[in-house]
Specification:
About 2% of the residues have low confidence. Helices cover 48% and strands 15% of the residues. The chain has a six-stranded parallel β-sheet, with helices on both faces. By secondary structure, the chain is an alpha/beta fold. The protein has seven helices and eight strands.
Length: 228
């Protein structure tokens, strides 16, 4: 059985044709990079380290996976930063936002347990069990938990998108980018952000409802009340 021959694309033969092809490729590259450029421009001046973070009532920590029920190294670094901010008196409460879409996978409870082991009182931790992606976490922080201002904590390759999305969702945000070892996960995350930036731009334009919204919850209000 003969396989059908696959025709190779032919380059334009004329100089004008090649010029138009080059222009089309360049235009495609520019369009692909526009969302990433928007993220860099829109978050200028809103990023720093734990030492730079302004005193704010609430910090939001985004989920980043579990290993055998415990926070992955990337997530642990985010939680370490939140614990450091709490110990320094820069925040009063932590909203942990992650995935609990099935019984055997519970990011928020694993994040809560980690924080309590590192000195954050349980009464100062609030769990969002429906933070399925960054946009959902940001919208739910504002609409469900009533967060108007927050320090956001994530890895450096993700923090700009988190700040831009939370700002669009109505949360005045300052991003703490946690550094990480430049391993395979880091390079994957950085590459993924190019595509994620396009989704972020669409989220900001169309403002879809989160996968799960639900009723308002008093968790953050109660956590801040316990701090007085």
């Amino acid at each position: 059985m003969r396989l059908p021959k696959v025709r190779r694309p032919r380059l334009p033969r004329t100089r004008a044709g090649r010029r138009r092809l080059a222009q089309a490729v360049m235009a495609g590259c520019v369009l692909a990079l526009l969302p990433s450029t928007w993220l860099y421009v829109s978050t200028a001046g809103r990023l720093g380290t734990t030492a730079d973070a302004p005193r704010t009532d609430v910090a939001v920590v985004f989920g980043a996976g579990l290993w055998d029920g415990e926070p992955s190294p990337y997530l642990a670094h985010r939680l370490d930063a939140a614990a450091a901010l709490y110990r320094d008196g820069r925040i009063k409460a932590v909203l942990v936002s992650g995935d609990n879409s099935r019984e055997d996978y519970d990011e928020p409870d694993a994040m809560r347990a980690y924080l309590t082991r590192h000195g954050v009182p349980d009464t100062r931790i609030v769990s969002d069990y429906a933070g399925f992606d960054t946009w959902d976490s940001c919208v739910r922080a504002r609409k469900i938990f009533g967060v108007e201002r927050a320090v956001l904590i994530s890895q450096d390759f993700h923090i700009r998108r988190a700040v831009a999305l939370c700002e669009a969702a109505g949360v005045s945000s300052y991003g703490v980018g946690v550094s990480a070892k430049h391993d395979v996960t880091w390079y994957y995350g950085g590459s993924r952000e190019i595509l994620a930036a396009s989704k972020a731009a669409l989220d900001v334009v169309f403002r879809p409802d989160p996968r799960f919204l639900g009723p308002k919850e008093p968790g953050v209000t109660n956590a801040l009340a316990s701090a007085r």
